[in-house]
Amino acid sequence: MLLVKNITKYYGNNRAVSNLSFTVNDGEIFGLLGENGAGKTTTFRIIMGLIEASSGDVLLDGKKIDYNLTDKIGFVTEERSLLTKLTVIEQLKYYGVLKGLDERVIEKEIDKWLNRFEITSYKNRKIKELSKGNQQKIQFISAIINHPKLLILDESFTGLDPINVKMMKDAIYDLQKEGCSIIFSSHQMEHIEDFCEKLIILVKGHPVVSGDLNQIKEDFGIKNIMLRGNDLPLEKIKKVNGVISVSNVRGEVEVKIESKEVAPKVFNLVKNSNITKYDLVEPTLNEIFIAKVGGVHE
User: Fold this and answer.
1) What is the per-residue pLDDT across 132-186, written as a single tens digit (0 to 9) for each?
2) Are 239 and 71 in contact (CB under 8 A)?
């Protein structure tokens, strides 16, 4: 289990992270979100022991993270961090040795992961000769070759097509089943919704949203009604108290309402129309992110 407790980080007079706390249990995938400059990278570096917090604590299984524990942490960065003049097998062996693995174990893991990601034929190719997507696969394998206790994924699907995204997602789920604690950060909100049950949204280092994703959506209040049909009384719907907006979205009518209590009022207006769809849906994480982050600027 990872425990981040009241960490604050200053760079001179600039406060990059402010009193941040969260827990990632064994086998849990946790979302850490925010705009560029929100404090995510600083938080990752503190967790990995690369920099020290100005105050607060970070514990992995009850122990402060130092060089005795860093081998148990995998980190897939947004930027490529590969030695491009090495071959794939040289790169992966290098990281395996750094993480203290026996050579036979390293070779077994390399063969397993290259086969799983369908890149066995690239084993003796230089990193610089690979596509961006295949480089990202190698970077991922480098981070998890020792089956880490904690895995940090920062925009880990960059450069991958949908087939390879699914391939990597399946690998992440397998690590989760092994009990790995995973922190996932992405600007692609659909990936966060797929993976994470709990999350935090940071604005200028300060958490503005935190908790269980379902509860966050419930507390947000605003819901969407998706309608499809003929002769819908759109002008009447717009006048209903609690209706925020009415718009066309990909051939359907989206009615944004302040709370689920408004939904019956809308239904009463459309029930006698020729409707083929009436669906009350939760707000997307993207909507919540924009609402909570979009207006917070100085």
Assistant:
1) 889 999 999 999 999 999 999 998 887 788 999 999 999 999 999 999 999 999 8
2) no
CA–chain centroid gap for 252, Å, is 29
- The crossing angle, in degrees rounded to 10, of helices 132-144 and 88-98 is 20
Q: pLDDT tens digits, residue range 195-229?
A: 898 999 999 999 999 999 999 998 898 999 999 99
Find residue 198's DSSP bridge partners.
30, 212
Half-sphere exposure of 90 (CA within 13 A, CB side): 11
Q: Is 186 exposed, middle or buried, given 0-12, 13-18 or 19+ CB atoms closer than 10 A?
A: buried
Which are the contacts of 1, defined by CB distance < 8 A and separation ≥ 6?
23, 24, 25, 26, 60, 61, 62, 181
In CATH terms, the fold of domain 2-216 is Rossmann fold (3.40.50)
CB burial of residue 79 (10 Å; 0-12, 13-18, 19+): exposed
The residues of the chain that CATH labels 3.40.50.300 are: 2-216
Which residue is it, tokens 């009193």? 19
Dihedral of alpha carbons 100, 106, 108, 110, sign: positive
CA–CA–CA angle 239, 265, 278 (5° rounding): 105
pTM of the model: 0.87
CATH number for 222-282: choose from 3.30.70.260, 3.40.50.300, 3.60.15.10, 3.30.499.10: 3.30.70.260
* Segments of the chain assigned to CATH 3.30.70.260: 222-282
Helix residue ranges, H only, the chain: 40-47, 88-98, 103-116, 132-144, 162-177, 189-195, 213-220, 234-238, 263-270, 285-293
